[in-house]
Amino acid sequence: MARKPISQANRDHSANWGTCQTNFAIAELAKEGKINEARKQFDRLLHKDIISWTSIISAYIKCKMIREARQLFDRSPHKNVITWTAMLSGYIRTNQIHEAEKLFQQMPDKNIVSWNTMILGYTQNNRIWCAYKLFEQMPQKNVVSWNTMITALAQNGEIEEAIKLFNKMGNRDVITWTAMVTGLAKNGMVDEARKLFDTMPEKNVVSWNAMIAGYVQNSQLTEAQSLFNEMPERDIASCNNMITGYIQNGMLDNARHLFREMRERNVVSWTAMITGFAQAGENEKAIKTFARMRRAQVNPNRATYMSLLSSCGCMAGLDEGKQVHQLISKTHWHEDVYVQSALISMYEKCGQIDLAKEIFDCTKKKDVISWNGMIAAYAHHGMGLESIRLFEAMRSLGFEPDDVTYVGVLSACSHSGLVTEGLEYYDSMVETGNVLVREEHYACVVDLLGRAGRLEEAVSFILDLKNRPGACIWGALLGACSVHGDVKIGEFASKRLIEIERENAGTYMLLANIYATVGRWRAAAGVRLKMREEGLKKQPGCSWIEVKNRVNVFVVGDKSHEKAERIYSLLKGLYRHMMRAGYVPSFLPKF
User: Fold this and answer.
1) The pTM is what?
2) What's the total number of domains in the chain?
3) Residue 16 has pLDDT above 80, yes or no
4) What DSSP string describes 116-153?
């Protein structure tokens, strides 16, 4: 049988030719993921040497079969520093940092790769100072050691320490410089990042992308655009950075134009556009873009599915949402807690609270995100008691509520009129001190009191706040005044709200409605006149319903629908029934 030639680069140092051939075959089979065939080759091998053992252990590690790799490692009569380092890297890859730590301490000999592997493991598990201590102990360091440590410090907010290390480093490469540019920009020091970028002895496309991404992260789109235009060469990441920047700044048309110009797109490019459309409320375009993405045979990621499900939920597109759910169920993302929470949100927005609960119940590994999603779902549907029961169940199982949990449960109490319970939860949150109290929590309390007609208490609560109240707090108070027709407090709240959001037409409309509710028509007309003088115009209300796979859209006063005559006839009939039942409208409807 003719021998298969082996190149010099792949030749190992096995003394036996047959062993050498088998070792090479094991390595090749491992690359292809054929671990069972690799094991058969190993088991048939009569003369196993250190390379044979290291090869099969490495093969199991590549297939993430760490337990089997460790069993072979313990059995191996031959181990060298490469074998030990391979096992160490296996633990690091599978986030078993404690096992890696124990193995590293047991190593009879360590080379520079062993040290670098353990340092990387610490940094990946956010144990930065353990990594730094090990870095200091290294008998010798190479550029990888320095780069790993500088990157970890910079990415974890220890920018001053990263700068010190960068200044100490002798032979820097382009990766070192790029890591510092990225770190400075991430820590808000974008001007310092640019100075360093300009002094770089050599730059590659990654360096340019890092600086552009830094400008985008720090909302300096003009500078990002200028640098993007100067780039000697661009890759997909360059365009993705700019598309992200455009979307973050509400420049969706610019993002769309650049996206169309791209010769090649990856999942980040497609997801950025889908997210952009979803955030802009152009949900149908988001769904159509996803359809194009599938035709381009680009596999979606977590962010793709989350944005897509958000669009389905916002447009109450139950059929579209179910189709996306079917696609997710065929991928590994169906067990992802973020995607499951997005599914819960989508179903509840489509009015399918039972399906949302079904997703929640089927979630095997529930975490705080899962519980938050279902608590919020019940809150949106005014099912306050169910939301509270779930909140208590969450705590009884040992889950610690976070700020989002409390927003959900406070909102549930507000929508269900559970004032006492809501105030107790708020007091509990403040007293424990484990949760950062945000403006949304304050707004929930104001809404809770306001809906119950306790407007004076709501005002006192706002005035007692240490921080200056924001728009959502005053908006909650104004909304409550509109419900209860309280002119005095309504005027007070609208004044504060206009100081913060002068161009928000909704504030003027709510105040006008309050005046109209109590019969002060002249004052209401005066507010509307003020709106015209300010050039403000409230967007007309819009709603839609899907019937037989067709989305029917309705705008206030719209009579363009083909069945408008029948629809308005039905509305008039409903209005007559409501009047006979004792309903007194704030405004006379215009049919």
Assistant:
1) 0.77
2) 1
3) no
4) HHHHHHHHHTT-HHHHHHHHHH-SS--HHHHHHHHHHH
